[in-house]
Design brief:
mainly beta, seven-stranded mixed sheet, single chain, four-stranded antiparallel sheet
Length: 126
């Protein structure tokens, strides 16, 4: 079992930056693939980025390439999402999720992730 807690969301002007954190409990965290998803009002959940257990493999949604960067610090049981050049359309609740099987294929597939955090709100205004 693993528990995930997101933080770092908030209100930011378009063009600004935020760094989200996903802190995890559980001894096996270092073996999990971790992903970020987001859900905007009235829309389905959308894949943002994922990172393998070693950090050696990442996957990013095309619409966010070059603006968002995922990273992890296994010593701190934490995964980060650095978001730059934010746009109003990035407004959403951002969730982190853990794949306990450590899959590095199809990392953007929501059903691969067994554990989810409660989410953190990101609001970008123009």
């Amino acid at each position: 079992q693993v528990q995930l807690v997101e933080s770092g969301g908030g209100l930011v002007q378009a063009g600004g930056s935020l760094r989200l954190s996903c802190a995890a409990s559980g001894r096996a965290f270092n073996s999990y693939t971790i992903a970020w998803f987001r859900q905007a009002p009235g829309k389905g959940r959308e894949f943002v980025a994922a990172i393998s257990w070693s950090g050696g493999r990442t996957s990013d949604a095309d619409s966010m390439k070059g603006r968002f960067t995922i990273s992890r610090d296994n010593a701190k049981n934490t995964v980060y999402l650095q978001m730059n050049s934010l746009k109003p359309e990035d407004t959403a609740v951002y969730y982190c999720a853990a794949d306990p099987w450590g899959s590095t294929q199809a990392m953007g597939v929501e059903s691969r992730y067994a554990y989810w955090g409660q989410g953190t709100q990101v609001t970008v205004f123009s």
